[in-house]
Design a protein that fits this description.
Layout: E1 3-9, E2 12-26, E3 31-41, H1 47-56, E4 64-73, E5 80-93, E6 98-102, E7 106-111, H2 114-120, E8 125-139, E9 144-155, E10 160-164, E11 168-173, H3 178-184, E12 188-200, H4 206-217
Antiparallel strand pairs: 1-2, 2-4, 2-6, 3-4, 5-8, 5-10, 6-8, 7-8, 9-12, 10-12, 11-12
């Protein structure tokens, strides 16, 4: 399988993928550069792929890179990269977190419960990755890994960048009573429960959306 690693150069972080007669896939626009005997392809997705991209917010196209050499992705404007080795399990990623993976990793969509997705800040649909291989995702900052052994993890805010699909995700009041939740200053909490892992970032996921919005408003060269 391809080898993925995060490297740092002059304060910037990149993802390097080394392939040897192999194929990997990536999010459109993630490429920085590649070297070697590599062929890049980008094909139109199926009708199902179009639907998945539309509801998850991911790119419609996922270019593939085949051959032997090195491929560099990034760097992100802010944040960190996390390398997730998968051995048949499934992870749920935050919107826009997927960067690249082995080509045999299935990139799909999961639907959260209506109230949970809309109120909890994670969105109605999220990206899922499953199979055998490696996935690289990006996060707003350094990640804290929390392994749950049937426990309950309550998070104030949309801080979860990734979680294993084995966990139950819901939105619950901070206290049993409505008045108690309101007066506690916490209101609603994102709750993860069961056997699995949650990766938390130090800032809410919506921070990345804010950065994108600010960047889009910045003047382009030559503009007044």
């Amino acid at each position: 399988m391809a080898q993925f690693e995060v490297i740092t150069h002059e304060g910037q972080k990149f993802v390097r993928a080394v392939i040897n007669n192999e194929t990997i896939q990536a999010e459109a626009g993630a490429l920085h550069y590649y070297r070697g005997n590599i062929e890049m392809k980008s094909q139109a997705p199926s009708a199902g792929g179009l639907l998945k991209a539309f509801v998850s917010g991911e790119s419609v196209f996922k270019p593939t890179y085949t051959g032997s050499g090195e491929i560099y992705f990034g760097p992100p404007m802010f944040g960190e990269y996390v390398v997730l080795p998968l051995n048949g399990e499934e992870w749920i990623l935050d919107k826009g977190a997927y960067v690249c993976s082995d080509v045999n990793i299935e990139v799909g969509v999961v639907r959260n419960k209506a109230i949970t997705g809309l109120v909890g800040g994670e969105g109605l649909y999220q990206t899922s990755v499953k199979g055998v291989g490696t996935v690289v995702a990006q996060a707003p900052g350094q990640l804290q890994r929390i392994d749950l052994q049937g426990e309950r993890l309550a998070v104030d805010g949309s801080f979860a960048v990734a979680r294993t699909a084995t966990l139950n995700y819901s939105v619950q009041r901070a206290t049993k009573s409505i008045v108690g939740s309101m007066t506690s200053g916490e209101g609603l909490l994102n709750v993860f429960q069961g056997q699995g892992t949650v990766l938390l970032a130090p800032v809410p996921n919506r921070y990345m959306s804010l950065v994108g919005a600010v960047t889009a408003m910045m003047p382009t060269p030559g503009s007044k």
